[in-house]
Amino acid sequence: MPAYTKSDLQRRMHGAVEALKHDLGGLRTGRASTSLLEPVTVEVYGSHMPLNQVATISVPEPRLLSVQVWDRSNVGPVEKAIRSAGLGLNPISEGQTLRLPIPELTEERRKELAKLASQYAEKAKIAVRNVRRDGMDSLKTDEKKNEISEDERKRLETEVQKLTDETISEIDAAAAAKEKEILQR
């Protein structure tokens, strides 16, 4: 059986793009987004749980997040978790609801976030290039085992390169869109 499979390479490259989109979703842009609170974990019932498992998160206004805590006894721990998450958010408690006004980003902070977005993109590109290298290596292995001809290997290498180029341009587009979103006022 050949070591090279196109579907495996596509799946792994797509995984790198999905990971990038998840990372970029957590970057604050000055607009409220529920993905902003995804990394927050709350210590309740003797364990650490993701915030979305103890509360409902919504966006009632463009610059406001609302966190509706299900169990009244968890309001304190949820508030503490949000404050200590390093997101620069200050929850305002109103019974079982926490209101999180999203502060304006300073120009300096915008530039830091844009730089971070390009670092995430570079990390994703490296992952894609590693997948490409693995694909090229398996093609050479297949050729050595006489499972494919030299012409077939060259054709498939071109296919792998095309897949790599498409994935990298998708990464660039996602990062550019996020940077534009961060830098615009």
Written description of the protein model:
This protein is of the alpha+beta class and 185 residues long. The chain folds into two domains: 6-27 and 106-183, Ribosome-recycling factor (Topoisomerase I, Chain A, domain 4); 34-101, Gyrase A, domain 2. The protein is 55% helix and 16% strand. It is built from four helices and six strands. The protein has helices at 6-25, 75-83, 107-144, 150-183, and strands at residues 41-44, 47-50, 55-61, 64-69, 92-94, 97-101. A four-stranded antiparallel beta sheet has the order 3-4-6-5. A hairpin with a 2-residue loop joins strand 5 (92-94) and strand 6 (97-101). Helix 1 (6-25) packs parallel to helix 4 (150-183). The longest helix is centred in the C-terminal third of the chain and has 38 residues, at 107-144. The radius of gyration is 22 Å and the shape is elongated. The chain starts with 5 loop residues before the first helix and ends with a helix. The model has no long low-confidence stretch (mean pLDDT 88). It is found in: Cytoplasm. This is Ribosome-recycling factor. Residues 20-183 form the Ribosome recycling factor domain.
